[in-house]
C-alpha cells in the first residue's frame, strides 16, 4: 500500500471579483495548508476503482473526488490496471477546508508514482483543475495566491509561525449554494496585496489584521451559528478569527501556545469538532 498525506487548507483571504459567463466566480484568494490531513492508501488491483472509507458522509462511488482523480488518470493515460483507494478521513466533510479536493490531489500524486507516469506538479495541477477549482492548489500545497476560478496558482512564502484553532459547527455547507447567494454589490473585499506584504514580511500582526473573506457574510446570514462560533473564539482569546472558504469552519490564529487550552476547551462546550493544529504553509513534495 502506498500512503499519501492530504492536508487541509484555510483561506487567509478570499475575494470574489465578479460572476463569469461560465457561471463560476472570478476570485483572488490566499490559501495555506494546515497540519490536519487525511491519509490516502493506494493499492493496485486488476481493474476498476474502489473507494473504501469508514466516514458515512463520504461517497464511495464516482461522486468521490478521489475516484474522479483516478478515473481521469486512467482515461487520459490508458491505464489498464485498477486501484483500491482507502480514505482515512481526518478533515471534516463539506467544511470549507478542501478535504475532497486534497484527497483528489493526493490521489493524483500517488497514482503518478504507482503507475510510473512521471508527470510534473504543473501537469498534475492542470489535470486536477478538471475535477474542481481547489484541486490545483492542493497539488502544490504550501501557501499561494489563487486567481481565475481558483486554478491559477502563484506560490507565496511561508507565513509566520502560529497555531490554528479550527471549529466546525455540525452543519455542512454547499459551496454552490453560498456562491449562488453571493451579491457582489454587498460584498466586503479583503486587501489581498496587504496580506501578501504581511506574509512576505513575516509580520504576524499584519496577517491577523488583514484576514478577510467576501463569502463570510453570505454564510453567516444563512447559518447564524457560524457567527456565534466566531464571537466565542474571539472571546476565548484568539488573535484573529475568520471563516474558511465557503464555510462553515471558523479558524482562529494564535501565537502563544499557553492560550490554546482556554480557546479549545471553551469551544468544545458547544462545538463537537474542534482542532488545534499548526499552520504548515510549505509546499509538499511530489509523492
Ligand atoms: C470556496 C472555496 C475557496 O477555497 O473553497 P471551499 O469552501 O469549497 O473549500 C473554493 O472557491 C471552491 O472550490 P471547489 O470546492 O473546488 O469548487 P468547485 O467544485 O470547482 O465548484 C463548486 C461550485 O461552486 C461555485 N464556484 C466555485 C468556484 C468559483 N471560483 N466560483 C464558483 O461560482 C460553482 O457554482 C461551482 O459549481
Ligand atoms: N474524498 C472526499 N472527501 C470528502 N467529501 C467528498 C469527497 N469526494 C466527494 N466529496 C463530496 O464533496 C462535498 C464537499 O466536501 P469537501 O471537499 O470536504 O468540502 P469543501 O469543498 O467545503 O472543503 C461533500 O459533500 C462530499 O459529498
From TrEMBL:
SUPFAM superfamilies referenced in this protein's UniProt entry, alphabetically: GHMP Kinase, C-terminal domain, Ribosomal protein S5 domain 2-like
Sample GO molecular function, one term: 4-(cytidine 5'-diphospho)-2-C-methyl-D-erythritol kinase activity
Domain GHMP kinase C-terminal: 195-271
Record domain GHMP kinase N-terminal: where: 64-142
Stretch forming the signal peptide: none
InterPro entries linked to this entry: GHMP_kinase_C_dom (IPR013750), GHMP_kinase_C_sf (IPR036554), GHMP_kinase_N_dom (IPR006204), IspE (IPR004424), Ribosomal_Su5_D2-typ_SF (IPR020568), Ribsml_uS5_D2-typ_fold_subgr (IPR014721)
Pfam families: GHMP_kinases_C, GHMP_kinases_N
Active site (catalytic residues): 9, 134
Gene3D superfamilies the record matches: 3.30.230.10, GHMP kinase, C-terminal domain
Residues reported to bind ATP: 92-102
EC number, UniProt record: 2.7.1.148
Pathway: Isoprenoid biosynthesis; isopentenyl diphosphate biosynthesis via DXP pathway; isopentenyl diphosphate from 1-deoxy-D-xylulose 5-phosphate: step 3/6
Substrates-to-products reaction catalysed: 4-CDP-2-C-methyl-D-erythritol + ATP = 4-CDP-2-C-methyl-D-erythritol 2-phosphate + ADP + H(+)
Keywords for the protein's UniProt record, in alphabetical order: ATP-binding, Isoprene biosynthesis, Kinase, Nucleotide-binding, Transferase
Family: Belongs to the GHMP kinase family. IspE subfamily.
Its biological purpose: Catalyzes the phosphorylation of the position 2 hydroxy group of 4-diphosphocytidyl-2C-methyl-D-erythritol.
PANTHER family found in the cross-reference section: 4-DIPHOSPHOCYTIDYL-2-C-METHYL-D-ERYTHRITOL KINASE, CHLOROPLASTIC
Name of the protein in its database record: 4-diphosphocytidyl-2-C-methyl-D-erythritol kinase
Designated gene of the protein: ispE
Amino acid at each position: 500500500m502506498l500512503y499519501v498525506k492530504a492536508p487541509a487548507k484555510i483561506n487567509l483571504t478570499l475575494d470574489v471579483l465578479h460572476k463569469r459567463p461560465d457561471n463560476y466566480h472570478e476570485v483572488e484568494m490566499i490559501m495555506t495548508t494546515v497540519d490536519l490531513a487525511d491519509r490516502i492508501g493506494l493499492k493496485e488491483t486488476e481493474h476498476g476503482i474502489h473507494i473504501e472509507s469508514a466516514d458515512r458522509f463520504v461517497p464511495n462511488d464516482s461522486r468521490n473526488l478521489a475516484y474522479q482523480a483516478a478515473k481521469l488518470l486512467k482515461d487520459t493515460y490508458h491505464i489498464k490496471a485498477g486501484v483500491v483507494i482507502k480514505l482515512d478521513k481526518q478533515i471534516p466533510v463539506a467544511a470549507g477546508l478542501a478535504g475532497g479536493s486534497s484527497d483528489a490531489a493526493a490521489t493524483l500524486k500517488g497514482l503518478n508514482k504507482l503507475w510510473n507516469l512521471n508527470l510534473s506538479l504543473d501537469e498534475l495541477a492542470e489535470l486536477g483543475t478538471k475535477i474542481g477549482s481547489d484541486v490545483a492548489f492542493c497539488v502544490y500545497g504550501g501557501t499561494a495566491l489563487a486567481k481565475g476560478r481558483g486554478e491559477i496558482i502563484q506560490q507565496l512564502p511561508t507565513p509566520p509561525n502560529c497555531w490554528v484553532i479550527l471549529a466546525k459547527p455540525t452543519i455542512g455547507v454547499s459551496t454552490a449554494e453560498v456562491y449562488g447567494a453571493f451579491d457582489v454589490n454587498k460584498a466586503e473585499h479583503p486587501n489581498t496585496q496587504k496580506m501578501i506584504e504581511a506574509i512576505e514580511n513575516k509580520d504576524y500582526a499584519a496577517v491577523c489584521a488583514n484576514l478577510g473573506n467576501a463569502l463570510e457574510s453570505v454564510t453567516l446570514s444563512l447559518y447564524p451559528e457560524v457567527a456565534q462560533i466566531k464571537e466565542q473564539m474571539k472571546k476565548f482569546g484568539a488573535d484573529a478569527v475568520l471563516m474558511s472558504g465557503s464555510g462553515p469552519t471558523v479558524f482562529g490564529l494564535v501565537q502563544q501556545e499557553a492560550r490554546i487550552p482556554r480557546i479549545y476547551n471553551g469551544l468544545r462546550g458547544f462545538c463537537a469538532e474542534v482542532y488545534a493544529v499548526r499552520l504548515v504553509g510549505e509546499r509538499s513534495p511530489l509523492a
